Amino acid sequence: MNRPDSLLLYVEDTARSAAFFSTLFSAPVVEQSPNFAMVALPGGLMLGLWGRHDVKPRPAAGTGGFELAVTLGSDEAVDAALAEVRTLGAPVVQEPLRLDFGYTFLAASPDGHWIRVFCPPQS
User: Domain ranges in the chain?
Assistant: First the structure.
């Protein structure tokens, strides 16, 4: 098996979520239909957005959580990303703080998927 090349998020409104992630990551929407959209993220990872009402088989209720993580090179870059996320109107779930793995904040997509932005500790 090769490395994963895509991930899927179940969403309420594929067009709204595609616009959100496309703007957030300055990435093109390369496929869009009423119940599915694909965003080509920088670095080659594909982000699939699938209308949750159309997912087959139906996922079990309460299935695990999910975070999409973005690693940046400085605390200042994290703060700049926070300002950008706020301009998109995304809820900030966790204000910036320093944790064991670095300086971080947590925002949410329109469907509540978490987006963790962080800078690892500088040595």
Answer: 6-54, 67-119
Beta strand pairing call for 114-119 and 67-71: parallel
Interval 18-62: pLDDT, tens: 999 999 999 999 999 999 999 999 999 999 999 988 888 877 665
pTM for the predicted model, two decimal places: 0.82
The residue among 89, 88, 87, 85 whose CA lies nearest residue 115 is 85
Strands 46-51 and 36-40: antiparallel
Identify the three-state secondary structure at position 110.
Answer: coil
Q: Give the class (CATH, top level) of 67-119.
A: alpha beta
CATH class for the domain made up of 6-54: alpha beta
Sign of CA dihedral 4, 108, 56, 47: negative
**All residues at 6 or more sequence positions from 89 whose CB lies less than 8 Å from its CB, including other chains:** none
Q: What is the pLDDT of residues 70-117, one digit of tens each?
A: 999 999 999 999 999 999 999 999 999 999 999 999 999 998 889 999
